[in-house]
């Protein structure tokens, strides 16, 4: 079953796969009940498609009368998950309202050169609760992942960042999650069109790859970055030296900017181990003509060491904290 629910989180559909003979015996008995409640979208001999309005009651029933270890579910064609985790997905429903009501604002943090002059700004999303308080971005993106809403949330943040960058000095770094993008020519087209409508020169926008998990489809990531490059934009690789961002990947992707992870920046002035990693990443970046950028700088000693050893750009609380964009 395919439905276009990626741009809008309205009317989510749960697909439940049933295995195990006792469970399959019960399955036909509950279909008429679901249908009478207008909860059932459709069904097969071993699968139920149920709308969210009817899913809570079904979850209660399954936990009482079925072997949930032989049930799996997914939301709107997302990845399959154990049925026992479905309540976590249900408890994350609030993120749908964040997306539908576009309750996101942009903060910016300066990126400076070796003289301390502002070279660029990184756009950072902040999410607003109904009472006006801010939610942790990590909390919101985790909830979106549970709800299979990463595409919609990532798109909202990208579009808001482009709208908010008018008037900022220098280049503008905008985060995006590559695993949320299905097809570059479709998913990224609206971002490019918006930049054109606002008369934003593509050369000032730097799209920053944000990813905390192992990249499984490198060719897909290359196609995304190639699409951006073909339309005049630049791109950066974030968290280099940590997680998935290895020297090998750096060499394959050839980003315009290489951002050294803060874990290797903070304390680098007094740590030979961190100095060794920072130097290796710096050399790898220079070999592919990528501008080396150190993020997470919080004191002058780390800044001085990185500057004196060849890093060109710098970001961190030492130069300025994120602040709301007017």
TrEMBL record:
A Pfam entry, by short name: EAL
Protein name (Swiss-Prot/TrEMBL): EAL domain-containing protein
GO molecular function: cyclic-guanylate-specific phosphodiesterase activity
InterPro entries (alphabetical): Cyclic-di-GMP_PDE-like, EAL_dom, EAL_sf
Segments forming domain EAL: 87-326
Organism per entry: Cohnella herbarum
SUPFAM superfamilies for this protein: EAL domain-like
